[in-house]
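Reopening closed ticket. The problem is back. First fold of the pair:
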Amino acid sequence: MNVLRSILLLSFLAICLAPKQTDAQAIINPQWSKLSKCAQVGVEAVAKVVTNVIPAVYEMQICSFYTALPPKDGKPKSSIWYLKNIYRFFKKLVVNNPKCLKLLVTQATELIKPYSEQIEELECLQEKDYIL
């Protein structure tokens, strides 16, 4: 169990301490097909958002001054306990501190903007290209 905790801690530190790129763009090989280029941009955009989720949630928790409910009677934490805390956290964000949520949305749009520009340049979302 200690090995698992160490791995999770090191992964968390790697995500938090990784240098933030200001001009993020997907690296595309010109020989790839249009679908491959669009998929590469999409994958890199999702990866960029996912690697910034943990620090953003931590910043929202600090901004909202949220503290988790203690487990009842010292029992192990159940899934209901997690769901209740997540619900209370987002309720507090939306109702009491919408400025924290606005900050998160602003950061997310700044992260995705270079990738969305690349998607427009590649014309990935043309109606004639839809598979379904």
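Second fold of the pair, where the issue appears:
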Amino acid sequence: MRTAIVGSGAMGQFFGARLLLANCEVIFLDTDQVTIDALNQRGVTLTTDLATEHTPAKAARASEVTGTFDLFLFFTKGFHTKAAVESITHLMGPDSYGLTLQNGIGNAEVLQQVFGEEHTLLGMTDFPADLEEPGVVTSNSQGKVRLGSLHQAPALAQVARLLDSADLHAAIDPDIRVPVWEKVAFNAALNTLSAVTGMTVGQIGVDTHARGLVASVLDETLAVAERLQIGASRQRIEAAMDNAFTHHTHHKTSMLLDREAGRPTEVDTIGGAVVRLGHENGVTTPVLNTLCELVRTSTPSRTLQ
């Protein structure tokens, strides 16, 4: 499948590199000229626990590209999803699919407005990705991808095979809402708390007070999921957190990095989305709401960007 990576940050470069190393046809689409130039000039160097690999790459602004693509993988921040989708409409054909592997809730609904219900896929990945500089990415080999659709999508199995062939350990989940919400719960707890406190993942893991706040956020998020009849597993979420506390001790969450850089955060599509859905469905989320409000008070308004 001719594939476009929409949003070429750490995760976009990681997935694009994996696909390129599996001899897939890929182009990186981004709006940052520094990233575009670096990818075109130097390609991507990917380092995992198994090896360091390099691949040449092609990158451009969407407006500079012609032709059609079979698959668009979206990795932009949630508040950029609508603009990102609108930027690639001239590259869509009648059989094009959009796949969101972004953090948070609501991105698939944005894709559906353009791709249609049967051509919109969504998923979850727990692969980490750290960008040392444009074109230089570190990750590991232990992650996975879970895929699904909110409506029947004919190419779902084909996309899963494509990603699996690139060592991305992809599989179809019968109810994709479950892994998506489990990751939302994970991120709602760790991202918001780290953004407010400045703590790394490891620091949260060893702090009694922080762990108490994490537990409260999980209580609230899982209560919202239960009201929506989504069977998220607290045991799986806590196992993922224990793994992060052990193996990603010095990791700064993306929300903390955004706050430190003075950039807008994804609080509205992660923790804020849980709070909103809780309010709409009669579930109170006081701890998470307070953390989200604190994040909002310390980050610039998107309207000013």
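Update: turned out to be a display glitch only; the data is intact. The chain has two domains: 3-172, 177-299. The longest helix spans residues 177-197. Please close again.
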